[in-house]
Design a protein that fits this description.
Blueprint: H1 8-23, E1 31-36, E2 42-45, E3 48-51, E4 56-64, E5 67-74, H2 85-94, E6 99-103, E7 108-112, E8 117-119, H3 127-138, H4 143-150, H5 169-184, E9 189-194, H6 200-217, E10 226-230, H7 233-248, E11 252-254, E12 265-269, H8 270-273, E13 292-295, H9 310-315, E14 320-325, H10 334-340, E15 345-347, H11 349-355, E16 361-366, H12 369-373, E17 375-377, E18 392-394, E19 403-405, H13 406-422, E20 428-432, H14 436-448, H15 451-456, E21 461-463, H16 469-480, E22 489-492, E23 505-510, H17 517-524, E24 539-543, E25 562-567, E26 614-616, E27 625-631, E28 640-642, H18 643-654, H19 658-664, H20 668-679, H21 685-691, H22 699-708, H23 715-725, H24 727-730, H25 735-751, H26 773-779, H27 783-799
Parallel strand pairs: 5-6, 9-14, 9-15, 10-12, 10-13, 11-12, 13-14, 16-24, 16-25, 19-26, 20-22, 20-23, 21-22, 23-24
Antiparallel strand pairs: 1-4, 2-3, 4-5, 6-7, 7-8, 17-18, 25-27, 27-28
Helix pairs in contact: 4-6, 5-6, 13-14, 18-22, 23-25, 23-27, 26-27
Length: 800
């Protein structure tokens, strides 16, 4: 056997640590061991979740607390020192560091990202060397700015367990790049693109914190001011309440109509700065009053040249302007990128899910019969109010805009109620409807299909739209609060599509067409936040209108785990795939008189319509079939394959042939290992049986059928075949012992393979009538003989 020398743990302890401290001058607090680079992607299998192993560096070298400058990866003693360099480079690149180092304890290999050079220095680099490289990497030449970057982040905000809330790696990158850009004077318009749920406001707070440290260092603290600007109340209230006021206290002020010049950090909506009562209030503040203007959700229109809000940004043009958005560059928001420039840093939805900081999701497409076939109106047909409906074929894009189908709404409500019964009756759900009237109909339908819950929680289903006024805002606050049980179901139009944090949201329902990718991603983002304390680790998207076809856009960066497609025809066969409807008209900015809640105003359809929607009550609506889809294994894009095909690929990858699987399946420990391996890839055995309709088959037969198209026999048939083919096992057993085995197999045939997991099942009926476990063992010749018979039974059963 080849001697590989001391293992990695020994090398780290006995060689790397002493050399870093004694030879290179690193202090113990600057050397972080076994540092998770990511949290580990969350994988959902059935109703269970698990985290994949996070990326983990052997050492991260920090010049100051929370300020890493290099990664060190260690390998075994007799490995080449360069063996870990590729791994170290991947970690360093993800952490935005200039240096990656690999070692076997004796030799050192280093890659410099600034020069592109790979070297083998005699010693590990010293702290001052790596700090110098980090400053060059960040483009920093000012020593005061460098000192500010070494300052600790604000640690005033706490997690639920009382520990300080520290920036994650990608937030740190965004903070330092922005601070360096602000103080370096290279650009006066900056942009950060960070997916919904990745902590943009926390990042913004830390940026302001670092800038305040710089202004204090330079004696300018009392002269510098920040404006946080956005277009709606919720985007003001949450960051003020949750991030800024706990850290900056009375320095925080919201502009509501009166000029105030005594604070440092101001919050305002565009509407408040341009309100009717005091037109152009923003002009009462001098152009150079603010030093930094943070524009949250900057893709929503203020950067457009024709926007009425652009005047605010123009007025404060002497200030550095930092745009925050969750939306990558698209045709619909090209003005945003033209105004602010290319992002300093981008952290995508796809990366957030891969790192384990965002919740993964599943997709169900539900095709209702009117959406599959359309509704043909002939001449002379009238609606509920006896108004004649224009003849023609009405499709998804027309429903709830021109013509309202009440039974379609009722059918969707029944489907969603059945789904809640199968999952969690108290699992929070948002239903995006066409307009506020449609949201009202859906609220009524969800209330009526959940009467039992509505008796307990009077607002089990609530409409949350702008026209509900203060009542609606109160219900929104309750809906957002993880500790408040109701409302459980919120029906809305656009009010909840962006800027609203709902940590425990488990289901996003699309019951209105969505015409643009950036709006679609904002809606999906409502569910991506994790709430691990409340066991919210993934969420479901239920699509009634075909909007999730936007997942197939080549630029969409957050592929679903798998997709469920419900389709219908009279024979229960798939009749169509949902088609993307034409983009709907979408105003990007609110009314100047509105304090930031414009998204529920009805959007005008493309063609003229009567003043009221036509209401139809007698259209029959059905859902008759369900197809399941998943993302293709190994695919970065949302290339969908049928769920069975996905499972087939996974099983075939794990097992080269059916005999290998059958052999492994014959013992309970091996079955557990197989279930674990499948679960790590997103496949739960009970769910696979359910999705394939083979609930009366053994999971082995389901896997064999899915992977190699072998006949899927029932558990009863498997027992029959075993008894017929393996009489030499059953016949020699004592009569009463054989009776125990027969009764056990009967339980297996009815209840499933779990009956064979542990001997304790013999304590259950009908086997327990034979006595205690000790007495049953005596029927087989003692405990050892019972265990041997138990193991042999499983080999016999799964050999059939």
């Amino acid at each position: 056997m080849v001697d590989k020398g001391r293992d990695e743990a020994t090398i780290c302890r006995d060689y790397v640590l002493p050399r870093l401290k004694d030879e290179s001058g690193w202090l113990p607090g600057q050397i972080k061991e076994q540092v998770p680079v990511t949290a580990g992607r969350i994988v959902r299998a059935g109703r269970s979740h698990r985290r994949q192993r996070p990326l983990q560096a052997d050492f991260v070298l920090e010049i100051a607390e929370g300020v890493p400058v290099a990664v060190v990866e260690a390998k075994r003693e007799f490995a080449d020192p360069r063996d870990g360099l590729q791994q170290a480079k991947a970690y360093a690149e993800q952490l935005d560091l200039p240096v990656a180092i690999s070692t076997n304890g004796h030799g050192v290999a280093m890659f410099n990202f600034l020069t592109g050079e790979e070297t083998s220095p005699e010693y590990f680099p010293r702290p001052d060397e790596l700090w110098g490289l980090y400053l060059i990497h960040q483009g920093i030449t000012d020593s005061t700015v460098a000192d500010v970057l070494r300052e600790p982040f604000s640690r005033m905000l706490k997690h639920a367990d009382g520990t300080p809330k520290e920036p994650r790696y990608y937030q740190r990158i965004a903070i330092h790049r922005t601070v360096a850009a602000c103080l370096g004077g290279q650009r006066d318009r900056l942009l950060l693109t960070m997916a919904t749920g990745t902590g943009k406001t926390f990042t913004a707070m830390q940026i302001v914190w670092k800038l305040m440290q710089y202004w204090e260092h330079t004696g300018q603290a009392g002269l510098k001011r920040v404006l946080y600007l956005t277009d709606r109340d919720s985007l003001i209230e949450q960051p003020m309440r949750n991030e800024f006021t706990p850290v900056f206290g009375e320095a925080v002020h919201r502009i509501r109509g009166e000029k105030d010049t005594a604070r440092s950090i101001y919050f305002a909506t565009y509407q408040a700065l341009t309100n009717v009562a005091r037109a152009d209030l923003f002009k009462e503040y001098g152009p150079d009053f603010f030093d930094l203007v943070i524009v949250d959700e900057c893709h929503r229109g203020s950067a457009k040249e024709q926007s009425s809000w652009r005047a605010i940004l123009d007025h404060f043009s002497p200030a550095i302007q930092l745009g925050l958005t969750a939306t990558p560059k698209r045709a619909a928001n090209i003005d945003t990128y033209k105004y602010f420039g290319e992002p300093l840093y981008t952290y995508s939805l796809k990366q957030g899910i891969a790192d384990g900081y965002l919740a993964p999701y599943r997709v169900r497409r539900v095709v209702l019969s009117p959406d599959a076939e359309g509704v043909q109106i002939t001449a002379g047909e009238v609606d509920k109010y006896q108004r004649e409906i224009p003849e023609g074929l009405y499709e998804t894009k027309d429903f709830e805009r021109i013509i309202s189908l009440l039974k379609r709404t009722d059918a969707a409500a029944q489907y969603l109620t059945d789904y809640l019964h199968d999952t969690d009756r108290m699992g929070k759900m948002v239903i995006f409807c066409v307009d506020s009237d449609h949201a009202l109909d859906m609220r009524q339908a969800m209330t009526n299909t959940n009467k039992d819950m509505s008796r307990i929680h009077k607002d089990y289903a609530a409409r949350i739209v702008s026209k509900e006024g203060d009542w609606g805002k109160h219900k929104l606050e309750q809906f957002q609060d993880p500790e408040t049980l109701a409302p459980v179901v919120a029906t809305t139009s656009r009010m909840l599509s962006t800027g609203v944090d709902i940590p425990t949201l488990r289901t996003v329902v699309l019951f209105r067409p969505v015409g643009s990718v950036h709006e679609f991603k904002q809606i999906i983002g409502r569910g991506t936040r994790l709430a691990e304390d409340y066991d919210k680790l993934s969420f479901e998207i239920i699509d009634f209108v075909g909007a999730t076809v936007l997942f197939e856009d080549a630029e969409f960066d957050g592929p679903a785990e798998y997709e469920v497609q419900d389709t219908i025809d009279d024979d229960g066969q798939v009749v169509c795939d949902p088609q993307l409807v034409e983009p709907e008209t979408n105003s990007s900015e609110a009314s100047p008189t509105d304090e930031g809640e414009d998204e529920d105003q009805d959007q005008p359809p493309a063609t003229p319509v009567p003043p009221r929607k036509f209401i139809m009550e007698d259209t029959e609506v059905e859902i008759t079939a369900e197809g399941v889809w998943m993302t293709e294994p190994g695919s970065d894009q949302l290339r969908l394959v049928e769920y069975r095909d996905y499972a087939q690929g996974v099983v075939r990858k794990l097992f080269p042939g059916p005999d290998k699987l059958r052999t492994r399946w014959r013992t309970a420990p091996s079955r557990s290992e197989i279930a674990e391996a499948l679960g790590a890839r997103g496949i739960a055995l009970d769910e696979l049986c359910e999705r394939t309709g083979l609930t009366d088959a053994d999971p082995l037969d389901v896997l064999m059928h899915v992977a190699w198209n072998e006949p899927a026999i029932s558990r009863h048939e498997r027992v029959y075949r075993a008894k017929r083919a393996k009489g030499d096992f059953f016949e020699p057993l004592p009569e009463e012992a054989r009776a125990v085995i027969d009764e056990l197999l009967d339980r297996y045939a009815v209840h499933g393979a779990g009956e064979l997991e542990k001997l304790e099942v013999l304590k259950l009926e009908p086997m327990r009538r034979h006595g205690s476990l000790r007495e049953i063992a005596s029927l087989f010749g003692g405990p050892e003989r019972l265990r041997q018979t138990w193991d042999e039974l499983q080999r016999v059963l799964y050999a059939a």
